[in-house]
């Protein structure tokens, strides 16, 4: 049996190991006195060598396993472990909420009613968080920071795309819409109630065509590849700024949200107020008129706070001679410090100990009476 590439031999052996229910491992050896390279696949052993003509052959097969396999634990082998789409989505949401990976895995175990019902282990959850979630967020931040100061090249020669060249960035999907416009053909139209309806035919594959009824209205800011085909059919070279979608723009306006990841009520209240203030400032920055209103209200609040501060300083100013504790404002309690780990005295533990001691005394008394 010969293979043109080493990857073909690896795939063949992995399929064989999956059918026989055992795991595989690769061990490489490269002898200096020979030019060929040997790779051994263990459990059972199979030695694959490369000939001088560049073809890989199976030179040796050992059918005995290097260790005993348990058929009941076959699903825990590496090639059988996988994370479904629901599991990946739950892990990502829990990571954003600040939940520890161990707690996330325990929730899956509780939902499945046992470790044996899951086709993955806690190590797979941690590897997915490290490899996909955190690294993906880091790559997105770096790409957004780089794209904000760059100008993307136009994918087509459309004047509409050149109009938005300084607005969109690399990671968004606006260029895909201009590329997909090539597969669309606008055939007919009819007008009704002040707007036009076009029939757009899109070629999905060699033998598959989809028809779409596209309504063209200048007041609607929709810019997809079907609408671009209609604009090209009408020979429109420039569109209004309302077609700039916020979700694709560099200056995207994100609404701040607060995910409750703590049970400390005073801390939650402060964080909620902080996010509410961010939403107010972001809403005020959408237009110059709203910004002017926000600045006016901010200036009035600053003047009022300064007046209140000056009054309070005059009222509570004390000299060193007649200063006493009664004239000083009420001292505030120190900020609440959250404790780590489980508290020593759990709520209700004293009552449980009292009940346990009472029942223990009753049992001892009954045993003593029986002995008498």
UniProtKB/TrEMBL annotation:
Cell location: Nucleus
UniProt GO BP: regulation of DNA-templated transcription
UniProt entry keywords in alphabetical sequence: Metal-binding, Nucleus, Zinc, Zinc-finger
Principal subcellular localization: nucleus
Gene Ontology molecular-function annotations: zinc ion binding
Cellular component per GO, a single term: nucleus
Function (record text): Putative transcription activator involved in regulating light control of development.
Protein family per UniProt: Belongs to the FHY3/FAR1 family.
PANTHER family to which the protein is assigned, alphabetical: PROTEIN FAR1-RELATED SEQUENCE, PROTEIN FAR1-RELATED SEQUENCE 10-RELATED
Protein name as annotated: Protein FAR1-RELATED SEQUENCE
The species this protein was found in: Arachis hypogaea (Peanut)
């Amino acid at each position: 049996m010969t293979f043109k590439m080493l990857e073909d031999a690896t795939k063949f052996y992995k399929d064989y190991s999956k059918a026989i229910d055992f795991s595989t491992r690769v061990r490489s050896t490269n002898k200096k006195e020979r030019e060929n390279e040997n790779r051994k696949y263990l459990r059972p052993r199979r030695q694959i060598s490369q000939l001088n003509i560049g073809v890989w052959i199976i030179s040796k097969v050992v059918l005995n396993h290097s260790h005993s396999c348990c058929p009941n634990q076959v699903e825990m082998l590496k090639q059988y472990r996988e994370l479904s789409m629901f599991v990946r989505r739950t892990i990502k949401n829990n990571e954003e909420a600040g939940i520890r990976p161990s707690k996330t895995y325990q929730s899956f175990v509780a939902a499945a009613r046992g470790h044996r019902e899951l086709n993955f282990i806690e190590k797979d959850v941690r590897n997915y968080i490290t490899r996909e979630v955190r690294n993906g967020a880091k790559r997105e931040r770096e790409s957004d920071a780089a794209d904000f100061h760059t100008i993307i090249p136009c994918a087509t020669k459309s004047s509409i795309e050149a109009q938005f060249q300084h607005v969109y960035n690399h990671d968004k999907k606006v260029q895909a819409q201009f590329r997909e416009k090539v597969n669309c053909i606008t055939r007919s139209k009819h007008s009704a109630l002040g707007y036009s309806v076009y029939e757009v035919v899109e070629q999905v594959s060699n033998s598959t065509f989809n028809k779409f009824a596209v309504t063209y209205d200048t007041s609607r800011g929709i810019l997809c590849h079907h609408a671009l085909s209609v604009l090209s059919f009408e020979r429109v070279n420039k569109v209004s700024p309302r077609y700039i979608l916020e979700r694709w723009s560099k200056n995207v306006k994100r609404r701040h949200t607060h995910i409750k990841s703590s049970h400390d009520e005073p801390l939650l209240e402060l964080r909620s107020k902080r996010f509410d203030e961010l939403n107010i400032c972001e809403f005020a920055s959408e237009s110059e008129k709203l910004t002017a209103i926000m600045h006016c209200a901010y200036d009035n609040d600053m003047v009022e706070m300064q007046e209140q501060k000056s009054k309070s300083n005059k009222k509570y100013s004390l000299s060193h001679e007649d200063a006493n504790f009664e004239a000083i404002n009420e001292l505030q309690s120190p900020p609440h410090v959250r404790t780590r780990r489980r508290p020593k005295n759990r709520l209700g533990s004293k009552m449980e100990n009292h009940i346990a001691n009472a029942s223990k005394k009753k049992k001892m008394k009954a045993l003593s009476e029986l002995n008498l």
